[in-house]
Amino acid sequence: MGKLKLLISILILALTTVIAGVPATIGVPATPASKGVHRNAYATMMYMGTPRDYEFYVATRVMLRSLSRLGVDADLVVIASLDVPLHWVRTLEQEDGAKVVRVENLNNPYKGQSNFNLRFKLTMNKLYAWSLTDYERVVMLDADNLFLQKTDELFQCGQFCAVFINPCIFHTGLFVLQPSTIVFKDMLHQLKVGMDNADGADQGFIGAYFPDLLDQPMFHPSLNGTKLQGNYRLPLGYQMDASYYYLRLHWSVPCGPNSVITFPGAPWLKPWYWWSWPVLPLGIQWHEQRLQTLGYDAERPLVLIQTVLYLGIIVMTRVARPNLSKLCYRRENTKSIFLIQTSLKLIAIWSILAAYIIPFFLIPHTVHPLIGWGLYLLGSFALSCIAMNTFLLPMLPVLVPWLGIFGVLLVMAYPWYSDGIVRALAVFAYAFCASPVAWTALVKIMSCLNVSLEREGFLPRLSESAAPAGFNKLY
């Protein structure tokens, strides 16, 4: 019952925030922190050059505000490349309480490797964390971290500390470092000479720079707050890979505090995208945190516009539905009519497909999942009404995919699965049972199209002005 209550409360809060216009920030708003007054810092980086720049900007703001809300005793620093828009920089400083450090993009000499992924082209900017010598310790973060509790004890760790979510390779989504001009210059030198890098990204480079971390002791914070010296491994609880959760649908991390969730993997399934939930259940926790910090003011106008547009389409298509009683002519079966009928069949099928594809790309990517899926279902229904009323198709077969999508969302969002395997089997069973229904609906649509084309239900009577031979009046 706890999961269901959480889901209902998030739905009510999301609907209130996005649709009703309630103030977007829930709880205590983030206030700018004093710049440079702390000995330690939480840092992240921003750069431009990928199609997902805005989404990562939103994710960065949510993470910064969540850290402020936890009351961390540290500065919040954003290492931003010079091409980051100035209004984003001002927002980060004035509204999110961050200290922004502008830097030039570091050249990535590994971009010619065969296994190189272009989305990692500018991730070497993470090395600038070692140049933040105003601080004793820095916790360097990726934007896809979800903090469950304050982690200031990490500032007691040594010169370099990271988590092994892979048995042999530590993860650079969160690591602790002691800034050092000497280390930073040496890293730039190693970058210039092309030190070995397994993946061409920051993780491969930093992993090669600290090759013996697996042999180092585990970090345990001291009770008196003394800073340690040397390199340490961090417990897994500081970088809980979301993949572990999806296997059992609950956390089971015995070593260290369960403090931070990270979301490595496919970039298009990051938790801030509305379609990632309920495909990946943990995404709702990220949006719960956004509701409590940043809100959804930026997406609200587009949501309202699309909602009004789709409702208008539904009304207009019902009003403009063709009058079937006016059908009175039929052509002979000529070659030209066969081509016209075939073309219209293709147009009808493509219009139905478009009804389920177009709304997906119009919804703001970072809107709340419950709002996103609701808007998608409304949009696909509205555009399906155009196909139904234009081609005189029955409603139920055209809406079978709509009902199927709604059903699979319910199956995936069901909160009482015992583990991820049972959940996957349930989705598979649903798809297996739904396939014959979808095929039957397609056959019904094609049959109805044939009937409409035979009666020319949606073809204009082009021959009224000059009717060729072969026309037969039916009534």
TrEMBL record:
<feature type="transmembrane region" description="Helical">
    <location>
        <begin position="370"/>
        <end position="392"/>
    </location>
</feature>
<keyword id="KW-0328">Glycosyltransferase</keyword>
<keyword id="KW-0808">Transferase</keyword>
<dbReference type="GO" id="GO:0016757">
    <property type="term" value="F:glycosyltransferase activity"/>
</dbReference>
<keyword id="KW-1133">Transmembrane helix</keyword>
<feature type="transmembrane region" description="Helical">
    <location>
        <begin position="302"/>
        <end position="321"/>
    </location>
</feature>
<dbReference type="InterPro" id="IPR050587">
    <property type="entry name" value="GNT1/Glycosyltrans_8"/>
</dbReference>
<feature type="signal peptide">
    <location>
        <begin position="1"/>
        <end position="21"/>
    </location>
</feature>
<keyword id="KW-0812">Transmembrane</keyword>
<keyword id="KW-0732">Signal</keyword>
<feature type="transmembrane region" description="Helical">
    <location>
        <begin position="342"/>
        <end position="364"/>
    </location>
</feature>
<feature type="transmembrane region" description="Helical">
    <location>
        <begin position="399"/>
        <end position="417"/>
    </location>
</feature>
<dbReference type="InterPro" id="IPR029044">
    <property type="entry name" value="Nucleotide-diphossugar_trans"/>
</dbReference>
<feature type="transmembrane region" description="Helical">
    <location>
        <begin position="423"/>
        <end position="443"/>
    </location>
</feature>
<keyword id="KW-0464">Manganese</keyword>
<protein>
    <recommendedName>
        <fullName>Glucuronosyltransferase PGSIP8</fullName>
    </recommendedName>
</protein>
<keyword id="KW-0472">Membrane</keyword>
